[in-house]
Amino acid sequence: MSAPLNWIQFVGAVELGFIYSLVVIGVYLSFRTLQFPDMTVDGSFPLGAAVAATLITGGVNPYAATFAAVLAGSAAGLVTAWLSTHLRMLNLLAGILSMLALYSVNLRIMGRPNIALLGERTILSGWMGLVPNSVSLGFITLLVIFGMYWFLSTRLGLAIRATGSNPKMGRAQGINDRRMVMTGLSSSNALVALGGALYAQVHGFADVTMGLGTIIIGLAAVIIGEALFPTRTVLQSIIACMLGGILYFIIRAMALNVEGFQASDLNLVTAILVASAMLLPGLSSKLRVGRKA
What we know:
By secondary structure, this protein is mostly helical. It has eleven helices and two strands, in the order ααααβααααβααα. The chain has helices at residues 7-33, 41-57, 62-85, 91-110, 133-153, 155-165, 167-172, 177-203, 214-228, 234-256, 266-292, and strands spanning 114-116, 205-207. Helix 3 runs antiparallel to helix 4 and helix 9 (214-228) packs parallel to helix 11 (266-292). The longest helix has 27 residues, at 7-33. The radius of gyration is 19 Å and the shape is globular. The model has no long low-confidence stretch (mean pLDDT 88).
């Protein structure tokens, strides 16, 4: 039997959903827009946390530390794009190599496996501390959503979308597809690193292993969002990604409330959720066909 979520569990799931919405939008940009399965996110998420936590504990302003984390994530995406476009590596292999390298880079940045931020000033303890974290995180997520919508509607954003849809046609139109891949992956990993920096500041720690499975969560949330919510326009697709991320963490919290499940079963629950999410598009298509018949 499952127990309903109490208010604290629900708010915690929504907060995680808002944080990972940034990751999901980043995965949407690389995976759906550029057709690039980017494994770098498993490394750039803890990279953002590591940079922000190290700088904050070193006395740097938390807003500057968060901005530095975004720049670090952007640089990680550039490395992956360079490996793919200039060294002609398979996209998947380029991402895996960057992810492996970032594990060591993150250890170098932190100087140890984890850093505690308890008692440190963060961006959520200033004027944002006047409202609940869920409100602050929701505000940041909405800013990112409309910023991404604006970006994808610009000439540069349209060129990135054209490169992902049909690279040959894009090149025929004079689009530098290498530059578009580098811009897209750089933006994608900057968003993921921002999510990592916020995660560290909300939960009070950065850990070198905290990125494990980030790409799986991102893909599952994208699939859930696309299966359950309308995606006829770019804005609808981005909002669907955010809602998919929030729904993913609410469902996971509810699953862990089922009698017999323990915190150690988290990976099992995640695997079941991802497998279920993969079935959703097929089930949605069958339901639509059934309604038309």
